[in-house]
């Protein structure tokens, strides 16, 4: 177990932890010193050999008193992602092994909650069975941001055909808006910008609270530099505004922050520091 938020257990479901793109590629407006800054703020965050940022791909499993919820389903196997070779046509057992280690099987998931519809957040929505894409979690309701589904349906690209449409056709999908509540402990928080329908996830139990960022942030260095644009944000300025709101909320409440792509251990706290913020990991070590 990664941590406990009141009565809610949080488990990390890690699929990939390796180099992705260089800091210069990921943060194109950050200036010529971006690599040095990232290295100063994220210990071991840049691969020495390749110069690329180490970017985990992971979901979070929430065990509430009422439901078992998977937040984001990572890349998956056999998926068509030619633009990212490490994600393309994978055949790997790590994601499923992590679920097993958390004491959960595919039949045990009540909800799959996708923060947005990008390849590394929807992949295990489905699996390939006898040449057909079928829902991986047969008893789950899949909560998909409605605005993102509109965009992906219009594109009708591999992502939609392989990882979204099959759960809709199976009658297991719910198109939801920000503010949607899932039981007594989980609420979708609007953080548009990375995609227009992007949501982060608030977990609350008693006096304890956590925020799962999704892709509102990709690195803890963005606490100090929240105005840095990220290469894959659909609306960079909207993403900056959402990121700042999320960081302000986290610093005001003192909640646990779980970063979907933050360098491991990927969880800690945020506190305000003049016009920016500081990241402190779960052991309260400043970075």
From TrEMBL:
InterPro entries, per database record: MBL_superfamily_lactonases (IPR051013), Metallo-B-lactamas (IPR001279), RibonucZ/Hydroxyglut_hydro (IPR036866)
Which terms in the Gene Ontology molecular function aspect does this entry carry?
hydrolase activity; metal ion binding
Metallo-beta-lactamase domain segment(s):
56-261
> Mind telling me which CDD domains this protein's record contains?
metallo-hydrolase-like_MBL-fold
Q: What's a Pfam family in this record?
A: Lactamase_B
Record's keyword terms, sorted: Hydrolase, Metal-binding, Zinc
Family stated for the protein in its record: Belongs to the metallo-beta-lactamase superfamily.
Protein name, UniProt field: MBL fold metallo-hydrolase
Question: Organism source for this protein?
Answer: Hoeflea prorocentri
High-level lineage: Bacteria, Pseudomonadati, Pseudomonadota, Alphaproteobacteria, Hyphomicrobiales
